[in-house]
Amino acid sequence: MSRQGLLFGSLIFVVAGAPAPVDAQSRDLAPTELKRSYPGSGVYTCPAMDRPAAPSHDDLARARQIASGAQQAFTLGALERAAALLAEAAALDGTSAEYAYRRARLLEDLERYEPAMVEYCRAIALGGDRLGPPSPGQRIDAIREKARRRLPVRAEQAFVAALSAVDRQRWTEAIDSFSVAVELAPRWSDPLYNRALILQHVEEYEQALRDFRAYIVIITDVQTTVERQPY
């Protein structure tokens, strides 16, 4: 399970009323746990991806059927539906780099850049680094450049100031500065993630849980419902 999954699960446990483990209460927050890069600050590194399970024959067939429906939706200009259907196909066949790449392109067209980057990274992890053109890596670079141009200067400055406050263990100052970045760039997930970690560290668990939930929504582009239509 990924780190954010573990933290998210542990926070649910805490908010439900169970005490936090003593070592979790007393340990220092390691600065390396924070996300420190921002668009234009350096080379982007894809997050670690879990190894997908091999799909069954039935799942493969169903995934192909759903992916075909996604292509039809795309042809009709229904990008939202096409992206949702490809997510469903990928859930059935998590080994397909093609589904990840196709969904990433759709999310990019819909200007959902962070989940698009995650999907491009998934395509690379599944061996699809040569898909395209342009390749997943090239698309990530292009998105990063778009994000750099769109990121408000004050949001970037607040983010850097917050990291400096963390390094000096000035938690309230760090939370306030990350909050400024969140307010100025609400679709930028990294300030949310960092603020959640610090809130957890200072035992503000309910606020931390809200931030983790918001972060997960941004990076996964959660689709709660998919309108079903015959193929």
Q: What does this 3D model show about the protein?
A:
The chain has 231 residues and is mostly helical. It has eleven helices and no strands. The N terminus and C terminus are likely disordered.
For this entry, give a set of tags:
65% helix; mainly alpha
Task: Count every beta strand, where a strand is a DSSP E run of 2 or more residues.
Answer: 0
Q: The biggest beta sheet, please?
A: none
Q: Supply the helix-strand structural class.
A: mainly alpha
* H and E string: HHHHHHHHHHH
Q: From the alpha carbons, calculate the radius of gyration and give it in angstroms.
A: 19 Å
Task: Give the helix level as a range of percent.
Answer: 55-70%
What topology does this entry show?
Layout: H1 3-15, H2 22-26, H3 57-75, H4 79-92, H5 97-109, H6 113-125, H7 136-150, H8 153-167, H9 171-184, H10 189-201, H11 205-220
Helix pairs in contact: 1-11, 3-4, 4-5, 5-6, 6-7, 8-9, 9-10, 10-11
